[in-house]
Design a protein that fits this description.
Low-confidence stretches: 65-72
Structural class: alpha+beta
Number of domains: 5
Strand content: 15-25%
Strand order of the largest sheet: 2-11-10-3-9
CATH superfamily of the largest domain: DNA ligase/mRNA capping enzyme
Number of strands: 24
Bound molecules: zinc ion
Number of helices: 25
């Protein structure tokens, strides 16, 4: 072999290796370390080089398969219909070339296209047999994926049973495909909760969706508010449609969630107008998109055009350039969260990016900052796609002048000056002073938040004032605030003081134990864990005395949570805080078996069936118990009323047979609000 050939071969091998490594990080680890634009660039380099030297294309080249290996934690399933990926276009010229190819192959002068959003999520394949969802799998490498049926079933917009379309039998077998994604609002909320618990922050909604779908415990997935759009599929037997647009309508009729944003275009100018529209307006959508997909609308023509070795000839993805910008790091500062995590934040020279001015970017933790070698004064490439948190992708070392300063972590907390400690189990650095003012402020805003004590009116500014003036030294002090305490603050008038007091008075009585435990802000004790603890330990005292073995015996509670709970109760400050809560008039609603609380629903019994949109089952039960009602598991003639959420199952049928009173979620909410 000549030397040119040998060096090309080496170059190809090196490129493949790099792409494989990035594929692994992206698909298997959900932790990409280069931007999509950089990845696309590498990939195109490989495609171009292989096109020039086709003899050197190896069967294991990344261009020769659809994706990467599945992570392997779930059973592997072979897709009955392989999932394909799409060829990409980045410019109008490339779209026009695609169109010309289609016209030529089809031997026509006009073709109609369906133009859809390219949702930034995870591709999923579903199987419905006789109308019932029998399998849901991730794309994996396109031929084989992971069976995540149990997790997919938790997505509320995904029908477990298809609706019957009038005058048509349900197909024996069908295979709709779509994209699972996390809406932006859910993503923000999840990251706020993760940060509050001191857990991993997700870089973007796609990673968050992938991480959520790969949870081994479907309970966790269920809490992640995933959603899904169906965008293609196969139906066995006669098809009641002829175009892609009609197929989507048919799917929608069957009860599958289909994107409302599909345009049927007759010219490339129309197609381009849609691409341009979403490139500029896409950021206003409630979910992230990274492009637009253009498909030949006529299904017979799709079939005629067929596939290349890799891609369908009848579709192409127009990918938006990710919004990236270069700016300078002015400073690196530390932020102390309520769990004590001290995280570095880059203060940037303000730059306009993806619809807003960005002046700060999180650097996540010390390890991440060191890995990317980010220094004060550095020029950095930052990215903010349709996502919310701007992130630093990498430093531009070629712009260094030698004046950049390495940020060194101080030994002491920047706020309370107590010594910092590395966390044993994560890359986080912690301020371990429970009374650190920054931590206290974080704990207070968590304490009053909607899912915790739900006390309205205590915004960040007020909390800051309360802590800075020394009126509130721990969370219990908040409930002990008097009218004159509040009036002594700037900008608090008589009316707002009364409103705050009224809000506290109603919310500090009969607090369900689970809610209170969550409100305390114990590290690693999120909403679900708090409910588990409250179920297993019916009183605060019994929980206080629980041993590590007793705690870890609860399904869903591991060593880390158990340690954190024990440390919390062992803290010398805790008894004092509880004494103050007691003094402030806080009462807990403790479920005593057989002894219901007296209230407007005393003597009435309820069954809750199906999934409620606004609250979990435990929470709904707590609301009823708070009003004196009792909550049962089984339907009988003695039940006063059945509360019915989504997918209620056989209990509803039974209740209907017995002629019991039935309330839907709206009516249930109206009832409990009526008594509040
Ligand atoms: Zn501190």
């Amino acid at each position: 072999m000549d030397t040119v050939g040998a060096s090309v071969e080496q170059e190809l091998a090196a490129l493949r290796e790099r792409i494989d490594a990035h594929n692994y990080r992206y698909y298997v680890l959900d932790a990409p370390d280069i931007s999509d634009a950089e990845y696309d660039h590498l990939y195109r380099q490989l495609v171009a080089l292989e096109a020039a030297y086709p003899l050197f294309v190896t069967p294991d080249s990344p261009t020769q398969r659809v994706g990467a290996k599945a992570a392997g934690r779930f059973p592997t399933v072979r897709h009955e219909m392989p999932l394909f990926s799409l060829n990409n276009a980045f410019t109008r010229e490339e779209l026009d070339e695609f169109h010309e190819r289609v016209l030529k192959l089809a031997n026509r002068d006009q073709v109609t296209y369906a133009v859809e959003l390219k949702i930034d999520g995870l591709a999923i394949s579903l199987t419905y047999q006789s109308g019932l969802l029998s399998l849901g799998a991730t794309r994996g490498d396109g031929a084989e994926g992971e069976d995540v049926t149990l997790n997919l079933r938790t997505i509320r917009s995904l029908p477990l049973r298809l609706r019957q379309v009038e005058g048509q039998p349900l197909p024996d077998w069908m295979n709709p495909c779509g994209e699972v994604y996390m809406p932006k609002a859910a993503f923000e909320q999840l990251n706020a909760e993760q940060a509050a618990k001191g857990d991993k922050i997700f870089a973007n909604p796609r990673n968050a969706a992938a991480g959520s779908l790969r949870q081994l415990d479907p309970q966790i997935t269920a809490g992640r508010q995933l959603d899904m759009f169906i965008y293609s599929g196969h139906v066995r037997g006669g098809l009641p449609f002829h175009t892609h647009g009609e197929m989507l309508d048919y799917f929608r009729q069957l009860g599958l969630r289909v994107s409302p944003y599909v345009d049927i275009c007759h010219t490339m100018d129309e197609v381009w107008a849609v691409c341009e529209k979403w490139r500029t307006e896409g950021r206003h959508l409630p979910f992230a998109i990274d492009g637009v997909v253009i498909k030949v609308n006529e299904l017979a023509l799709q079939q005629e055009l067929g596939f290349t070795a890799k891609f369908p000839r009848w579709a192409i993805a127009f990918k938006f350039p990710p919004e990236e910008a270069i700016t300078r790091v002015r400073d690196i500062v530390l932020q102390v969260g309520r769990t004590g995590a001290v995280t570095p934040v880059a203060e940037l020279e303000p730059v306009f990016l993806a619809g807003s001015t960005v002046a700060r970017a999180t650097l996540h933790n010390r390890e991440e900052m060191l890995r990317k070698d980010i220094r004060i004064g550095d020029h950095v490439l930052i990215r903010k796609a349709a996502e919310i948190i701007p992130e630093v992708i990498r430093v531009l070392p070629e712009k260094r002048t030698g004046t950049e300063i390495l940020f060194t972590y101080p030994d002491a907390c920047p706020t309370c000056h107590s010594p910092l400690q590395p966390d044993e189990r994560s890359p986080l650095i912690l301020c371990i002073n429970w009374n650190c003012p920054d931590r206290l402020k974080g704990r207070l805003s968590h304490f009053v938040s909607r899912n915790a004590m739900d006390i309205e009116g205590f915004g960040d500014v007020l909390i800051e004032q309360l802590v800075d003036t020394g009126r509130v030294k721990d969370i219990a002090d908040l409930l002990g605030l008097t009218r004159s305490d509040l009036l002594a603050l700037e900008r608090i008038g008589e009316k707002s003081a009364d409103n705050l007091l009224a809000a506290m008075t109603t919310k500090k009585q009969n607090v369900p134990l689970g809610r209170f435990l969550f409100a305390l802000g114990i590290r690693h004790v999120g909403k679900e864990v708090a409910l588990l603890l409250a179920e297993a330990f019916p009183s605060l005292e019994s929980l206080q005395q629980a041993s590590s073995e007793q705690l870890t015996a609860i399904h869903g509670i591991g060593q880390q949570i158990a340690e954190s709970v024990i440390n919390f109760f062992a803290d010398p400050a805790t008894p004092e805080v509880f004494a103050k809560f007691h003094q402030a008039g806080l009462t807990l609603l403790l479920p005593i078996p057989g002894e219901a609380v007296a209230g407007p629903l005393s003597g009435q019994s309820f069954v809750i069936t199906g999934t409620l949109d606004t609250m979990g089952r435990n929470e709904a039960a707590a609301e009823l118990e708070k009003l004196g009602g009792s909550v049962k598991d089984t339907i009988s003639k003695k039940i006063t009323c059945v509360i019915v959420g989504k997918n209620p199952g056989s209990k509803l049928e039974k209740a209907e047979k017995l002629g019991l009173q039935i309330l839907d979620e709206a009516a249930f909410l109206a009832m409990i609000r009526g008594y509040a």
